[in-house]
Every structure is written in C-alpha cells, then in structure tokens.
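We treat protein structure as text, and this decision shapes the records that our systems exchange. Such a record has a labelled line for the sequence and another for the backbone structure tokens. The record that follows is passed on verbatim for readers who wish to inspect the format:
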Amino acid sequence: MQDEFYIKRCIELAKKALGKTYPNPLVGSVIVYNDKIIGEGYHHKAGENHAEINAINSVKDKSLIPKSTIYVSLEPCAHYGKTPPCALKIKELGFKKVVIGAMDSHDKVNGKGKKIIQDVGIEVVSGVLESECIDLNKRFFTYHEKKRPFIILKWAQSVDGFIDKDFKPIAISNSLVNQFVHQLRADEHAILVGTQTVLNDNPSLTVRNIEGENPVRILIDFDLKVLQDFKIYNLEAKTLVFNLKKEKKENNIYFIKIEKENFLSDLMNALYKNQIQSVIIEGGSFTLQKFIEANLWDEAIIIKNEYLSLKNGTKAPDFQNEPFETKKFRDNMIEFHKNS
C-alpha cells in the first residue's frame, strides 16, 4: 500500500506537464526516506531534465540518498538522448531501492533501465499501479506500439442528432464546455479537420480560453480548396496540410502529398513519421464517420446539448458505443467513450 501511495504522487506530478513533453512521455518521481518524501520532480519538457533528476536535485540532504527509495511512474531511461540515462544516475548514487510504475516499451529502454539498476544489486520493484501508469502515457504507448497517434474523436450535437442548423454553423456547446474543449486542445498533440469544416467555420484551432500550448493543426484538403487567408494558415501553430497536389514547406505550413487510395493508413504512417503522438479528430461528420467505420479510434468525446433541437442540417456521425462516463456541464452533457 505504501508503494501505491507514492506512485500515485508520481502520477499527480507527471500530469502537471500534460501536453508539454512531446515526443517524450509524462513521468513523475518521488524520493522517500523513513516514510517521508525528501524530494520530488517531474519531466517538464523535452530536452530538459527527466523526472528522476529533478527529484534528485530537489533533495536538500544528499547524504540520505543511499538510504532512500526512489519511486518513478515509468522505467528509468537507459539511453543517451538530449540528457544522460537516468538509470546510470540512480546506479551511481546507490539508492537503497527503486519502485517503478510501468515498464517502458520503447525500443531504447524496454527493460534495459531496470537491468542496469538490478545488476549493481539495488532492489527493484516494478508494476506498481501499472494500469494507471500505462493510462497516464496512453499516447506514448500507442504511438510506439501501434506506430500511429492516439486518436480521440470529438463532436457536439443537438438533442435530435444534428451538428449544424440547415447546414450552417451554430453554437451547440456552452461557455463551460468551450473551456473544457480548449483544455483538451492544450493537452493533446494535434487536431485534425477536413476541408468542409474549415470552409464552413473558418476555425483557428488554437488554445484561447485557457493557458497552454497550441496543438499542431492537421488539415485534410485534397484539392487545396481552403485559401491562404483562412485562419488555419496563420502563424499561430505548426500546420500539416494533406493534399493531392504539392509537397512543400512554407513558414509554419507543411504541405504533404497523399493519395485518396489507402488514405487512412497512409495518413497514420505520415503522422507517425512526423512524431504526432495524439490527435483530436474534430470534424466534420464525413471525416469522423471514416474513422468510426475503420474502427480507427481510441477514445471519443461527444457533447450533447439536451435542450437544443435543430430539426435539419448535417447529421451527427452514426456511432454505436456505450459511454464509460458522462459529465454534466449545465445544459450540456459530455459522454466519454473508450474503444474496447
């Protein structure tokens, strides 16, 4: 139970950097001496210190380290990247014990970090709150194991199942939900829309109602119908435009050629190559339906306005799935779905 308590704290710390560590995972670490936390830290941003190093640096009395246990939500790294391996630092400092939440399935780690520590006689326990630690890094694990981003479907619909009124945009979600949506954008790596959504709504797809990073914008525009004076082409975020006509980089815009045949699998490969770890599919109905039909999704978020009847317009996607959780935001209900 003691180990679980401290790994829970590691998860809490790791979540502070949600949306900021790509392409690295979220990791938290805690150092405990005599049932007291003497140091803690988390990985803030790619290229900066890892969680274990931040935790070690926060310990005031370094002489206590060899008598302490270090807890970490993900297996310590074993390779040289922008920073040296954490497993070597743990070995060098001679911790009494190491407790790991989840093992790292990334090719460069995958048991190597644990082995470095065990080989010098340090006690290692792994798999503590493993499913919670895997869920913390569902984006990272999906990306490395399935060679594609973690995919979240998202749309808002009226009580009678429409996403617009008479095929024209209409506000369906309330201000509270809009804040939630902007937080979602800040938490995820990228956001994807199709041509029609941009032509209809002219969205900027940035984070405005909260503080956070803008997601990478992905536009599927085969015939390049969206003109460059649309908001999606502004300088506020990196933008990938998948099209049939050109392969070119212009400022923050990357035009990437793609064929319509085998489109979804080619898109997944291209996003993997561009190191996109998670993507919100934000519409419209046609694009969302393609992902649903291909069963190519991990989570879905459906916003329902229970008091708004639109009678006519674009039908919401046909989606047969039971939510695992629902939350009420005033007159809006949000359903959360997982692909089992």
The radius of gyration is 22 Å. The CA atoms of residues 116 and 227 lie 54 Å apart.
